[in-house]
């Protein structure tokens, strides 16, 4: 990853120095070895804090809504999964494509510091990735973990490839793995309605209404969310434990259905560890089964299953009959 | 019932006066027919319309009015929209008084006073002006400069003409933004008019109006030789609790609901520019 | 000092719950938060940081304040408070969170006293728990907090097979007395040994040298006008994760909710990070996320101390450090604008 990072840095320098772009969107070093933050670099000098490592999990594409409105061109480093969100935002006319220079960067799956800590490790001072092994240094000693067990949920089942690139920095290809991203959804489908209700009830009751899932979501790009409108009559800020209040997440899932690229940011950012991506994946699976396989963000053009009418489309009554 | 500062009491609207196309003045008493509570000039009260919400309003009537409270309210949001649709006899909820008042006893006494207001900004000043008029002998000369968009936007023009203009040792200047048929007075913005009148910089000034009016009027006053420590204004920010706890009306380390709304210009200079 | 075997803790919880409510870290759907104890609940005292702080014991995220009954033109205010006179024990509160109670007290118990908060606060006995495995995001020592001997009515330590127990005041002694049959007297050696071991780790924590000296009232405007707020806040999503996991954030909203039997006026946690926080009918005093971000940290590090005799409204619990979706946090603010001690 160090090699990739230095190539990225080199490219960012050239782009900024030549004036080809006004800014580069990437990641800035954090206070520890595992907390880089999304950042905009406008000069070579600012690049001294540039970083690209196994903790750069954030999807940078949503920032481009604002960046593409700024003066001059913006270069951005996008991982494979991020490019789907980018396409979707271009399709929805949120990002001005001409103002963005996409540098596709390799991703060998990103790590989840929360999962590392959940292994009982505390006071992490260093993390080294060596193939499938991850060496973690802490103030209480060292440990070697299996990478598969500590990658972000969104990386665990990812086989995505870059859908957009104006140029690329890919030194290694992540091998295509035999994973079924719908496995967790299938497990939920196997449950009885009562079990499933209990599962979601428990998960959603943890919600603290911080809106991190909505604010990070590239598909949630409304300028003003209905839940922020005091006249909507929705007591959005009240964190009532009633199921009615938790409908927020279900409404959101409906709103992004057909547009959600399964980037997994909702689950990554949830402070309460609610597996929100499962709601979206259920919709993706249903759309696949009802209208044929579809992956949002594969293209910045064309119609989507939910915006196109075909005579062969399943009627609601048929869906009901099939018990889906 | 347990007392809590956030729980309001019931008020009854006993009179509604339509002042302009978007300003109405509401007269409010408690359910016992008496004034809901005592207050000082410049202080505010939280009025609420159940189901719609609460909002902070400056109390327009003078504390010397022992019978009722008045609020001049401009129609501009959720709560005010509903208030404007109300009829006499309607009950609302009210709590207060909140905030720091104008120092009418401590600082204003014996001084010549200059009041400058724009539009609905007259609402909080009316309370001070009428207080000072009530204890007229305690204060020096009064100069009032009041401007509005048009002659139809001057709030409670009757009181101004019939009472203020006839008050001893008192000068009242009115101005509107654009010339209008039937208006023989001054035409022009407040800041320019104040400079034109040529007010005495030894006066104590009180300003209230839209931010842009305050900004330019203050500039003008400073040019005339006014000291910031003798210029007062009153701020308005979003408030929910009114008692310095909900955390949203702060400017730097001062809460407008508790440490304000009345501030001296030299005090505001010390605060970050975020109001 | 007393002690009780870890294996007997369930009996201790049950004994406490007999006479009072018990609020304790409980694992539910994979996350640990303070919640009301009951038989069969999975208590997790070992969890260093609960997701939410225990502040909702007396400042719940949402609480109904009153009810309006309206009929024709008349309005009636109905008191719907059900005063729970039962005492409450908040168990397993870490040193940072105990300190945070003081921060909240200064706001809610200042005149005019918030009686909603006060009634619950008075009913609470705080049983704190010392930290023995602080992690990299911890920086309570920067605020003069000793996590090895937290304040509270009772202080406890988990070490080896035992939970050690020390009452700090009358309230604590009263609770100890009730539980006397479960507690055995013991020496302080184990606790002292653990404390000195933990203190060694504390010195080596990466955030041990944060320098707060620049954050004081006299630098208010200089800090406010610092151009680096733009860079610090640029990745901020404007969500409320930092606010809602914070033990000292106390801002709230008051809203009305229409029901079939009247209008409920409730209050709920609010976040200065939200775009509608300062929105008024005719304008907004903070229109950019930079302004909102700056407000949050200026409040904790400058405004609140200016109002409260220098007490910071941050206790270094590090929850925001762990939970910010984009890894922004108060530590980066302190480091950038304040620096580190050499």
Short description:
The complex is a heterotrimer of chains A (324), B (275) and C (342). By secondary structure, chain B is an alpha/beta fold. Chain B has 6 helices and 15 strands.
Provide the residue-averaged pLDDT of chain A.
92
Query: Distance between termini of chain C?
Result: 39 Å
Nearest-integer average pLDDT of chain C? 94
Uncertain regions spanning at least 5 consecutive residues of chain C = none
Strands of the widest sheet of chain A, in order across it, are 2-1-3-4-8
Quantity of strands of chain C, as a count: 15
Shape of chain A: globular
Proportion of helical residues of chain C? 25-40%
User: What's the order of the H and E elements of chain A?
Assistant: HEEHEHEHEEEHHEHHHHHHH
Q: What would you call the shape of chain C?
A: globular
The helical percent of chain A reads 25-40%
Supply database-style keywords.
heterotrimer, A: 324 residues, alpha/beta, three-stranded antiparallel beta sheet, 13 helices, 14% strand, C: 342 residues, alpha+beta, nine-stranded mixed beta sheet, 11 helices, 15 strands, globular
Question: Could you outline the blueprint of secondary structure elements for this entry?
Answer:
The complex is a heterotrimer of chains A (324), B (275) and C (342).
Chain A: H1 2-17, E1 23-28, E2 37-41, H2 63-67, E3 74-78, H3 80-91, E4 100-105, H4 113-118, E5 124-130, E6 133-138, E7 141-146, H5 147-150, H6 153-156, E8 167-169, H7 183-190, H8 193-204, H9 212-216, H10 243-256, H11 265-269, H12 277-291, H13 316-322
Parallel strand pairs in A: 1-3, 3-4, 4-8
Antiparallel strand pairs in A: 1-2, 5-6, 6-7
Chain B: E1 9-18, E2 23-30, E3 44-49, E4 53-58, E5 69-74, H1 78-84, E6 91-98, E7 113-118, H2 122-134, E8 142-148, H3 157-162, E9 170-176, E10 186-187, H4 190-197, E11 204-208, H5 211-224, E12 231-234, E13 250-251, E14 254-255, E15 262-264, H6 265-270
Parallel strand pairs in B: 7-8, 7-11, 8-9, 9-10, 11-12
Antiparallel strand pairs in B: 1-2, 1-6, 2-5, 3-4, 3-6, 12-15, 13-14
Chain C: E1 2-5, H1 9-19, E2 21-28, E3 31-36, E4 42-43, E5 62-71, E6 74-78, E7 88-93, H2 95-108, H3 115-122, E8 124-129, E9 154-159, E10 162-167, H4 170-178, E11 184-185, H5 189-204, H6 220-224, H7 229-233, H8 241-245, E12 252-259, E13 262-269, E14 279-280, E15 283-284, H9 289-307, H10 319-323, H11 330-338
Parallel strand pairs in C: 2-7, 7-8, 8-9
Antiparallel strand pairs in C: 1-10, 1-11, 2-3, 2-4, 5-6, 5-13, 9-10, 12-13, 14-15
């Amino acid at each position: 990853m160090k090699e990739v990072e230095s190539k990225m840095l080199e490219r960012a320098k050239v782009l900024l120095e030549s004036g080809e772009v006004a800014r580069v969107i990437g990641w800035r070093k954090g206070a520890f070895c595992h907390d880089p933050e999304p950042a905009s670099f406008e000069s070579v000098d600012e690049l001294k804090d540039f970083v690209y490592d196994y903790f750069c999990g954030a999807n940078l594409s949503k920032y481009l809504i604002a960046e593409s409105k700024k003066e001059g061109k913006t270069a951005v480093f996008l991982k494979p999964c991020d490019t789907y969100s980018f396409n979707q935002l271009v399709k929805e006319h949120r990002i001005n494509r001409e103002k963005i220079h996409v540098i596709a960067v390799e991703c060998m799956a990103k790590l989840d510091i929360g999962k590392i800590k959940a292994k009982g490790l505390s006071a992490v001072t260093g993390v080294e990735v060596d193939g499938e092994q991850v060496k973690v240094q802490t103030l209480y000693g060292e440990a070697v973990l299996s990478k598969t067990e500590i990658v972000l949920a969104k990386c665990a089942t990812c086989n995505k490839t870059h859908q957009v690139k104006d140029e690329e920095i890919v030194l290694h290809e992540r091998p295509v793995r035999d994973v079924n991203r719908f496995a967790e959804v299938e497990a939920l489908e196997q449950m009885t309605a009562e079990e499933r209700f209990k599962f979601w009830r428990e998960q959603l009751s943890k919600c603290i209404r911080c809106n991190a899932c909505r604010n990070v979501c590239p598909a949630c790009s409304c300028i003003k969310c209905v839940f922020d409108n005091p006249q909507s009559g929705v007591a959005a800020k009240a964190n009532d434990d009633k199921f009615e209040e938790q409908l927020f997440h279900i409404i959101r899932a409906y709103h992004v259905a057909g547009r959600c690229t399964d980037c997994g940011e909702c689950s990554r950012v949830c402070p309460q560890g609610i597996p929100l991506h499962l709601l979206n994946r259920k919709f993706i699976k249903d759309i696949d089964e009802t209208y044929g396989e579809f992956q949002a963000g594969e293209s910045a053009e064309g119609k989507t299953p939910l915006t196109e009418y075909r005579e062969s489309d399943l009627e609601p009554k048929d869906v009901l009959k099939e018990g889906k | 019932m347990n007392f809590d500062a956030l729980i309001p009491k019931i008020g009854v609207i006993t009179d509604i006066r339509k002042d302009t196309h978007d300003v109405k003045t509401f007269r409010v008493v408690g359910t016992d027919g008496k004034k809901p509570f005592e207050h000082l000039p410049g202080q505010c009260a939280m009025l609420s319309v159940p189901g719609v919400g609460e909002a902070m309003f400056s109390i327009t009537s003078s504390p010397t009015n022992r019978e009722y409270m008045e609020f001049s309210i401009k129609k501009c949001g959720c709560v005010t929209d509903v208030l404007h649709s109300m009829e006499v006899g309607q009950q609302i909820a009210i709590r207060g008084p909140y905030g720091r008042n104008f120092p009418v006893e401590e600082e204003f006494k014996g001084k010549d006073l200059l009041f400058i207001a724009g539009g609905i900004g007259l609402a909080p000043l009316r309370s001070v002006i009428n207080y000072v008029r009530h204890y007229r002998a305690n204060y020096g000369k009064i100069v009032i400069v009041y401007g509005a968009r048009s002659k139809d936007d001057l709030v409670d023009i009757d009181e101004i003409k019939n009472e203020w203009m006839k008050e001893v040792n008192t000068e009242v200047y009115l101005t509107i933004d654009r010339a209008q048929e039937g208006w023989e007075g001054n035409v022009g913005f407040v800041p320019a008019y104040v400079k034109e009148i040529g007010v005495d910089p030894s006066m104590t000034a009180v300003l209230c109006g839209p931010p842009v009016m305050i900004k330019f009027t203050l500039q003008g006053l400073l040019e005339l030789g006014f000291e910031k420590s003798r210029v007062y204004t009153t701020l308005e920010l979003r408030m929910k609790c009114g008692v310095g706890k909900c955390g949203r009306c702060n400017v730097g380390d001062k809460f407008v609901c508790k440490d304000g709304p009345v501030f001296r210009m030299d005090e505001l200079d010390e605060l970050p520019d975020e109001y | 000092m007393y002690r009780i075997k870890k294996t007997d803790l369930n009996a201790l919880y049950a004994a406490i719950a007999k006479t009072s409510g018990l609020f304790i870290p409980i694992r539910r759907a994979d996350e640990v938060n303070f919640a009301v104890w009951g038989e069969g609940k999975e208590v997790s005292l070992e969890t260093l940081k609960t997701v939410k702080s225990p502040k909702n014991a007396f400042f719940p995220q949402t609480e109904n304040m009153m009810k309006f009954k309206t009929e024709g033109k008349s309005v009636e205010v109905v008191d719907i408070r059900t005063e729970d006179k039962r005492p409450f024990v908040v168990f397993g509160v870490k040193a940072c969170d105990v300190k945070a109670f003081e921060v909240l007290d200064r706001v809610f118990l200042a005149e005019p006293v918030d009686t909603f908060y006060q009634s619950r606060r008075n009913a609470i006995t705080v049983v704190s728990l010392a930290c023995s495995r602080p992690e990299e995001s911890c920086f309570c020592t920067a605020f003069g907090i000793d996590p090895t001997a937290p304040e509270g009515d009772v202080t406890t330590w988990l070490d080896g097979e035992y939970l050690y127990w020390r009452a700090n005041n009358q309230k604590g002694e009263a609770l100890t007395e009730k539980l006397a049959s479960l507690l055995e007297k013991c020496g302080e050696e184990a606790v002292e040994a653990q404390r000195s071991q933990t203190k060694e780790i504390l010195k080596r924590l990466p955030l041990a040298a944060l320098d707060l000296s620049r954050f004081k009232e006299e630098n208010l405007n200089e800090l406010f006008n610092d151009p680096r707020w733009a860079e610090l806040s640029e990745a901020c999503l404007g969500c409320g994760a930092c606010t809602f996991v914070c033990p000292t954030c106390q801002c709230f909203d008051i809203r009305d909710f229409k029901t079939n039997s009247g209008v409920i006026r409730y209050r709920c946690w609010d976040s200065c990070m939200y775009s509608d926080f300062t929105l008024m009918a005719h304008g907004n005093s903070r229109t950019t996320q930079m302004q909102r971000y700056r407000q949050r940290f200026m409040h904790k590090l400058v405004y609140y101390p200016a109002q409260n005799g220098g007490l910071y409204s941050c206790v270094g619990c590090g929850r925001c450090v762990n939970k910010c979706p984009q890894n922004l946090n108060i530590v980066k603010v302190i480091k950038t604008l304040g620096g580190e001690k050499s």
